[in-house]
Amino acid sequence: MNRYLALLIAAFATAEMQAFQLAPRLVINITIDQLRSDYLEAFSPLFTPNGFKKLLREGRVYENASYPFSPVDRASALATLSTGTTPFYHGIISTQWLDRNSLHPVYCVFDNRHLFSPQYLQTSTIGDEMKVNSRGASIVYGIASSPEAAILSAGHAANNAIWIDSQANKWKTSTFYANNADKWINAFAGKPAIDKSHSSENDVLADMALTTIKTAAMGVDEVTDLLSLTLSAAAPKGKQSNNRQTEMESVYRQLDRTLGRLVNDIERQVGKERVLFVLTSTGRDEDSEDYGNYRIPTGTFYINRTSKLLNVYLSAIYGQGQYVRAYFHNQIYLNHKLIEQKKLSLHDVLNSCQELLIQNAGVSDVYTLERLLADNGNLRSIKNGFNPSKSGDIIIEVAPGWKLNNEETLESYTSRLAYIPFPIVFYGNGIEHENIFTPITVDHIAPTIAKSIRIRAPNACSKSPLF
Questions:
Q1: Which of 90, 327, 343, 425 has its CA 20 to 30 A from that of 15?
Q2: C-beta of residue 445 within 8 angstroms of C-beta of residue 461
Q3: Cβ of 298: how many Cβ atoms within 10 Å?
């Protein structure tokens, strides 16, 4: 009996030890801007065995992923991936927004003191929680082609965020991370980021990721480290061809080779069982076709003209005044000071705005500050992308196929409500292959990583782990 009990205890101890050893010592978060499942399927015959095919064949693949808010851009997407929550909480509603006081555009990672920092990111990231849990021992980096992608992926407590200054073609970091600055990065500062030896920007970023892992000794001890890397599946700007299929074929073929080299080299450096790879997309698409050329219903809504008309309309109802302070993207900011001075009801003014705006051609819906804050779930996608301290008082949604233009800033985008398919893939670290078709949202990624490395999820993340 004692011998049987001893064997049972030993078996449980061995199982617990194996479970503990399965925790990854390096997490590689790969986000590919504008990656699409339909292109992955279309170009699959052209892929090598070691790139996308390997991850999709051996990984745990969630086929129907989406973002829990709208609209999505690169900055808001990356902030959501790293925090496990939406812009309503993390505060990054887009790459730029309008400051309510100064009425000047604010770049999402701008910092007066450091030039760039995550100061506008209002919640913790998975990398931040790793730092807290390990008392600073975890190594955390963000690498991308732009400062917002690198910084929002890295977080507040990271060792560093590294990106490419596209104008100078140099590697850049922020003095925000100066206390943890790496001298080895300075060796790259004077060299061109992209030279003739690289076939694409993705190749350059992959090389920097591999250099960082090796030089910073990531994944070599028993403390889990994190490297977040942002690549791109977008067509090169300024290189449009008459055949988009051929153009995208080249992009995905190169991306596949870069991904295969990256995964194989990391597995060789660290060991497959010690690394957890997470791959997903920003879930957006910059395609902007001219539907008018194909006789598809379309039109243009001018936010600048409509805002001026709205001010005339409100003046006719409530007396002369500058009721519209500003407009930015698809949002209108009202003059709250004037409304208070005239002792008007904000509720009444917002209703008047909604009554006029919804009558405009091309406007499918008008969301007011009050309507979103009072929503009990019907407008969840719009509300999740809204932030009370940064968003406008009024958000205008134009009809699918319509363009929203600002003639003063030359901004323009085409509304498209169609779902853009993309996957979430977990690979390595003992994960078994499975294809899962249940729809999920990307804010489940951060808590899944947190569970796999035995730490808390980011502080505004309320979603459950996927496994």
A1: 425
A2: no
A3: 19
- The dihedrals phi and psi of 401, each to the nearest 5 degrees, come to 90, -15
Token representation of residue 293? 């050329």
pLDDT averaged over the chain?
Answer: 92
Segment among 51-55, 270-274, 295-299 with least mean pLDDT: 295-299
**Structure confidence at residue 17 (pLDDT):** 46
Length of the chain: 467
Domains and CATH numbers, the chain: 26-285+418-453 (3.40.720.10), 299-415 (3.30.1360.150)
What is the C-alpha separation between 229 and 29, in angstroms, rounded? Answer: 6
Task: Give the model's pLDDT for residue 19.
Answer: 46
Burial class, 139, CB count within 10 angstroms (exposed 0-12 / middle 13-18 / buried 19+):
buried
What is the CB-side half-sphere exposure of residue 442 using CA atoms within 13 A?
A: 29
